[in-house]
Write a structure and sequence with these properties.
129 residues; mainly alpha
């Protein structure tokens, strides 16, 4: 910082730019390290319930009886079971018609199901601790 002030007082713009570039590089490196640490923390927190939701989604769409029983028998969480049935039915229909329907429409029902299940899994994980 002192070098930066001295370069400003002397009017030495080359030294000023060189010092400010070095400081900027250090700041950017520090910010990147902080972002990496934050991403690791988020990944550790998110992964458990995201994996559960993915497993539930695949199981419900494929008609896996054990997954269906697991999800619908969650007693400690209040959720709309009829809405879940509708989302699963829509996702199944989309998957069956996937050859005729294209792009975003195909994934819309599945995305809605995934969002619902992520919320449900997150509640399940937080309530169990």
């Amino acid at each position: 910082m002192e070098t930066l002030l001295q370069a400003t007082k002397d009017g030495d713009m080359d030294a000023f730019h060189a010092v400010s570039r070095r400081n900027t590089e250090h700041i950017e490196e520090d910010m990147e390290l902080e972002e990496d640490e934050e991403e690791e923390e988020i990944d550790e927190e998110v992964l458990p319930y995201m994996e559960i939701a993915k497993r539930w989604s695949e199981g419900l769409i494929s008609g896996d009886a054990s997954i269906t029983k697991e999800v619908y028998s969650l007693y400690n969480i209040d959720f709309d079971r009829q809405e879940l049935r509708n989302l699963v039915r829509s996702a199944k229909q989309e998957e069956e018609n996937s050859t005729t329907v294209q792009g975003a429409e195909v994934s819309q029902a599945r995305n809605l199901l995934n969002v619902f299940l992520c919320k449900l899994a997150n509640q399940s994980c937080t309530d169990s601790y």
